[in-house]
Amino acid sequence: MLAATTRAADDTVSDALDPKAMREPLPNAWYCVGQAATLKAGGMRPVELNGEQIVVGRDASGVLFAMRDRCPHRGMALSKGRFDGASVMCPFHGWRFGTDGRCRDVPTLSETDSSDFSRIVVQRFPVIESAGFLWINPYLGPATAQDVPAVPELGFEAAGCLVVELVVEASFDLTTLSLVDPGHVAFVHDSWWFRPSKELREKVKTFIPVPHGFVMSSHATTKSSPVYKLLGGVPDVEIEFRLPGVRLERIVAGDKRVANYTFATPLSNNRTMLTNALYWSMPLLNLLKPVARPLMRQFLSQDQQVLQHAQAGLDRKPTMVLLGQGDLPSQWYFRLKREALDAARTGRTFENPLTQQELRWRS
């Protein structure tokens, strides 16, 4: 077991899987809210993030902004209004708000009305762009120097990319567990193009702690998968998990690069967006986009279906039995999350509670 686990595994799991805590994502973290390329300068769109309705946009010069999608006057969604590249006009009574959230104009006021609308401000949220996606931190607590998990970066120039997004009717934690669960692959993703061999094999991998997560150290894999065969040679694969719900698979074969990134985004109590992005450095692979897209969607849909059925079972009885070394990464997720919450609560620096460990399982 990991050195940091001083309590019994059953106690740890029981605490982590409290029905309320099970559905509460980390409050101070970056979450993926969609592709960056689909948001042009002078455009805006609504997004949902952990129960919060947010409007994200780019001003006329392309600078990003994000603010609560609610006019403070009568609660109207600002995303339903017009954006001229500098200010958003509420469609209900024409109130205007700058991209800084401050009210710029209330056209219904009489010239003799001394009401000061400049004091009215819509809540803003931090928003950044990385790896071709937009990321928002919905945290509304006091400004602190807390450690916040870094947003993913790509690390190479992509010649092409495919993105699939699916809404899963399941809690954020349950969906995130699928990103660190090696045992489900042989049963959920039993596809001819992904797993031509149906035989369960012993896996031995070394896991190393990294900031806000852990990584399955780089290893040479087999060429059994048709996906790997496209690279030629035996690729090296490194898989990282990072809070709050980010899985980063990096594949290297000589000078060829492929990255398979998956992000979990909490939408509401039992709704989570799963985003899968596949990047590659070889221009010829762009020819396979028409074939690859439906296969990626099929792969993600398999997770979607099984997670929704599992959520129904957890709604009836919100307990899990995490057993064996194959389930240790799931326990690690909860320990990392607990440490992040405790560090934030006490105002200290996040300290990864995990240590390097070799795991064995069959898949």
UniProtKB/TrEMBL annotation:
Pfam families: Rieske
Taxonomy, superkingdom: Bacteria
Keywords: 2Fe-2S, Iron, Iron-sulfur, Metal-binding
Keyword Lipid metabolism: no
UniProt GO MF annotations: 2 iron, 2 sulfur cluster binding; metal ion binding
Ranges for domain Rieske: 30-136
UniProt keyword Metal-binding, yes or no: yes
Protein name, entry field: (2Fe-2S)-binding protein
Species per Swiss-Prot/TrEMBL record: Methylobacterium gnaphalii
